Amino acid sequence: MLVGKSASSGIAIGRALVILHNDIKIEDGLTETPQNEVKRLMDSIQVAKGELTALHDRVLVEMGADKAAIFEAHLMILEDPEMIDATTDLINNQKFKATYALDQVAKQFISIFHSMDNEYMKERAVDVKDVTDRILRIMLGIKVYDLSALKEDVVLVAKDITPSEMATLKRQHVLGLITEIGGKTSHTAIMARTLEIPAVVGLKDATKLILNNEMLAFSGDAGEVFQSPDEKLLTKFKKQKADDEVLKTELKNYIGQKSTTLDNHTVKLEANIASVIDTEVAMKNDAEGVGLFRTEFIYMDRNTAPSEDEQFEIYKAVLEKMQSRPTVIRTLDVGGDKEISYLKITKEDNPFLGFRAIRYCLQHKDLFKDQLRALLRASVHGNLQIMFPMISGLEEILLAKEILEEAKLELQKKDISYSKTVKIGIMIEIPSAAMMSDILAKHVDFFSIGTNDLIQYTCAVDRMNEKVHHLYDPFHPAVLRLIAQVISAGHQAGIEVAMCGEMASNQKLTEVLLGMGLTHFSMTPSAILKTRKNIKNLDFKKAQLKAEKVLTLSSGKEIVDFLDSTNH
Ligand code: PEP
Ligand code: MG
Q1: What is the pTM of this model?
Q2: What is the distance in A from the centroid of ligand 1 to the CA of 453?
Q3: Closest approach atom of ligand 1 to CA 450
Q4: Would you state the pLDDT for residue 418?
């Protein structure tokens, strides 16, 4: 069994197509015959033009203008006179070989696009790389796979899949996707979720360990890939896949319905997202809002912090896509397992107990205010709520709100408008905040319980440490008691209480959380309809009794046993 990172849920069973994009090895060194190198470059551009035109035409017919547009953009980049002139100048004047010259020019263009404030222009950097890589491969005689021409059903295994490949791959022939690089929020992972292709990413050496045509079976949720599975395993995966299909079709019936119990108690089911694209999956699964936008992902995979304008564009896009449904955007939650190198957080012995999230932001006011101003400016485009992470006590709330007021004043001075009704909330994910929730509730408009961290801090279990994973227990009575306490404190103060940690989609706990009075459940979008179905079959009064009973039990095991014996 090979283990990678779960990126997109679902079961994949099929033969591997291992894509060996031989690495492009740039020839350095000089040429004595620059005119030959210029010819080599121009010939390769012509070949690339032929390839891209053919791709464009076929994709246009088979998949529509939307998907074909990427190749129009690529053809424009391919024939960009500035890029061609810069490359031929390097060949003629510096006597560089064609591949080296093009590589140099491509890097320059990519870094220019990268440094632009505008999100759209920034994305063009990926397209320049896509196009110049195509020309380089042609010059070096490296085969380019055409995933839009797939004829058989396959599980794609590759180092990574480029955006143009991803945008045009024949969806109906792709059973699953495994890549060597990337994380849960890498471009490939996000696209896989949008296209609903089961995917595992970050599986080291996958293209070496998996053989072409080898039979594979995996679940995108578990991140575990089985090679040449035996009959027994195969039958298990096939059954799970069939069950998933039946459930998926059935769950579509729940789109457009309210999340209301049998005795007419209604709650809201919302989505956790990490990018603008994720809003599409959220809407497709009928999320009643966004309960958590993890903005730290905007800060990752780059060399400098995103500017205020850049962030404004992203938040505006998210708010618009959510069409005035409530949208909770969390301020930067850096640190812990989320490293952002340019923020220069020095290595700490206990990063989860260290300089993270609001602690970092309160000491880096300029960076924090850039984000707050961007959020406030975007607020006029939808139904924004701002949330502060990792709050441990009242002082942090007061300081964060003070800085928010400063950001508002700065905008007012410039006559920039923002919504005056933006709600301000905090994550309750540290036991000290949970214990103080009655007091904290007087200072904010909503709570959102972050169970991923609340469990780790309550049980003193590092959530990344495999060795103590058995102690990381969402059913632990202490965790459930804290949650009940927070919900009740929130309600007594008349504020909304949500949950956005993984526990919110734990179907075994839905009834208990409902019974405790939780009204907003925020989760990975693919779990929303399943949870709605569950809730529609529950009775709120019975759930309240069940929650009361659970809070009297003495161990996680006792609670699980009790729930197993009473859940239908
Ligand atoms: C949590 O801690 O439950 C949470 C939602 O935040 P994150 O997983 O991003 O720390
Ligand atoms: Mg957290």
Answers
A1: 0.74
A2: 6
A3: 3
A4: 98
